[in-house]
Amino acid sequence: MATVEYQRIGKSFGAVTIMRDISFRIEDHEFVVLLGPSGCGKTTLLRMTAGLESVSEGDLMIGGKRVNDVHPRDRSIAMVFQNYALYPTMKVYDNIAFSLEVAKIPAADIKKRVEWTAATLNLTAYLDRYPKELSGGQRQRVAMGRAMVREAEVFLFDEPLSNLDAKLRAHMRTEIRQLHNRLKTTTIYVTHDQIEAMTMADKIVVMRAGKIEQIGSPDDVYDRPASKYVADFIGSSSINFLPGTVVVGNGAPAVDTATGRVTVEESSALKPGQKVVLGLRPTDVVVDADGPLVAKAILTERLGHDAQLFCEGPEGSFVAVVDKAARFSEGAEIRFAIPPSKVHVFDAETEIRI
Ligand code: ATP
C-alpha cells in the first residue's frame, strides 16, 4: 500500500521556518498535484518526501511507516526532475538501466525491465541514441523511464514539463496521465501551472507561503474556491474581483458594488452591511442588455473558439468571455449578468469564502 501521509510537517532552514503544520493524506493509486506560486514550498515538500531534504517537524509516513530517517534509496520512491538529469555520455538504454546496475540487479533482469519500460513509454526505437539526439519530449520520457524502471511505489514529479513548449507540454500532460491510468502508481506532482493541475490531478493541494490553502478535486477548487487566493490562482482567464457591501435586495441577498448590484445565493453567513469581495469568472458573466453590471468595452481578443472582451469598470478592468461573432465598439457601455450560483463571495477582511 503506497499511501503517503504528512502529519504536522514543518520545515526550517537554519533559523527560518518556511513551512509549518502541513497535514494531509494521499491514498494508494492517487495522482495528487501540489500547486502554488514560486516559493510557496511545494518543491521542498516533494524533496522531503524523497528524502533529499530533512523533515524538521512532524511525521512523514509512506505505506504506513514513518520514514523521516529512512535513506532515500530505501523509500520505494522515484523522482523525475525538471531538468531531466540524464547522463549525456550514456545511451538511452544505459540511462534507463543505470539505477538497476548500481543496485547490482542481474543483467538479464535489467534487460527485461528496460525493454518493458521503453515499450511502455514508446522509446524502443531510441534505446541506442544519446540524449542530445532526442527531442525535448523524448528526453522527458527517458527521464520518466529512469524513474519507472525501478518499480517504485510512489512517483514524484518536480515540474517535469516546464522546459517544453506549449504544444508538447499539452501532449505530455495527457501521456503522463494515461500512463498513470495504466500503472496506477501513487503520484505526487509539483507545478505552478494551474492547467496542469486541473487536467491531471485526482486531488489538488493548493499551497501558499508554506501552508495549505485548499485541498480538493479539480472541480472543488474551481467551483468552490476556499479563498480569494485560490479563486485567483485557478482558472484560465483571471477572475474579476469586485469589492462591495451586502444588502437585502428583493427578498434575495445581494451585494452592491461600484459596477452594479449582484444577486447572490442565500447564505446565513451574509449580514447586511458586511464588506465582501465578489469573484466573477469571465466564463460565467454573460452580455445581457438587462444585466445589472455595467462596464465600458475596450478591446476584444479573439481566442479561436470564443473571445475575451476587456472592459474598463469603476474598479478597474473587467473581463468577460463572449461569442467570437459579437462586435463591441470601443467605449460602448456593455451590461452583464451572472447567475447567483456562479458568484463567489469572500469576506473582505479574511478573504475566506462565505
Ligand atoms: P519554485 O516553484 O520556485 O521552485 P517552490 O514553491 O517549490 O518554488 P521551494 O523551492 O520549496 O518553493 O522554496 C520554499 C521556500 O524555502 C522559499 O522561500 C525558498 O527561498 C526557501 N528555501 C528553499 N530551499 C532552501 C535552502 N536550501 N536554504 C534556505 N532556504 C531555502
TrEMBL record:
GO terms for biological process: carbohydrate transport. The keyword Transit peptide does not apply. GO terms for molecular function: ABC-type transporter activity; ATP binding; ATP hydrolysis activity. Residues 4-234 form the ABC transporter domain. It is found in: Cell inner membrane. PROSITE patterns: ABC_TRANSPORTER_1, ABC_TRANSPORTER_2. InterPro entries: AAA+_ATPase, ABC_transporter-like_ATP-bd, ABC_transporter-like_CS, ABC_transpr_MalK-like, ABC_transpr_MalK/UgpC-like, Mo/tungstate-bd_C_term_dom, NA-bd_OB-fold, OB_MalK-like. Gene3D superfamilies: 2.40.50.100, Nucleic acid-binding proteins, P-loop containing nucleotide triphosphate hydrolases. It is a peripheral membrane protein. One of its GO terms (cellular component) is ATP-binding cassette (ABC) transporter complex, substrate-binding subunit-containing. Keywords: ATP-binding, Nucleotide-binding, Transport. It comes from the Bacteria. CDD domains: ABC_MalK_N. Belongs to the ABC transporter superfamily. This is ABC transporter-like protein.
